Amino acid sequence: MKLNVEQREFVEELLEKMTLEEKVGQLNLDSPSIVGGFDVPFEELIEMVTDGRMSQEEFGKIMATAERDFHEDDIRAGMVGAIMGNDPVKANELQKIAVEETRLGIPLLMGFDVIHGLRSVYPIAIAEAGSFDDDLMERTAKMAAKESRAYGINWNFAPMLDVARDSRWGRVSEGPGEDPYLASNFARAKIKGLQNNTESTENYVAACTKHYVAYSACEAGRDYNTTSMSTSQLYNVYLPPFKAAMEEGACSAMASFNDLNGVPCTVNSYTLRDILKDKFGLEGFVVSDANGIRECVTHGVAEDDGDAGIKALNAGLDMDMGTRIFYNHIAQAVKDGKILMETLDDAVRRILSVKVWLGLFENPYVSKAVIDEYAKALPKEHKDLCLEAAEKSIVLLKNENGILPLGKERKFTLVGELADRADEVVGAWSLGWEIDDCVSVKQGLEEAGAQFEYYPVCGPESDIDENELRAAIESDSEIVIAVVGEYKSMSGEASSKADITLPGNQQKMLKKLVAAGKQVIAVLMNGRPLALGWEAENLPAIIEGWHLGIQMGNAIAKVMFGECNPSGKLSSTFSSVNGQEPMYYNHPNTGRPGSKSKFTSKYLDAPVEPCFPFGFGLSYTTFEYSNLKVDENGDEISVSVMLKNAGNYDGTEVAQLYMQDVTASLVRPVKELKGYKRVTLKKGESSRIDFTLRKCDMGFYDNQGKYTLEDGLFRIYVGGNSKDVLDTEISVSFRNGEVK
Ligand code: GLC
Question: How far is it, in rounded angstroms, from Cα 308 to Cα 114?
Answer without folding.
Answer: 29
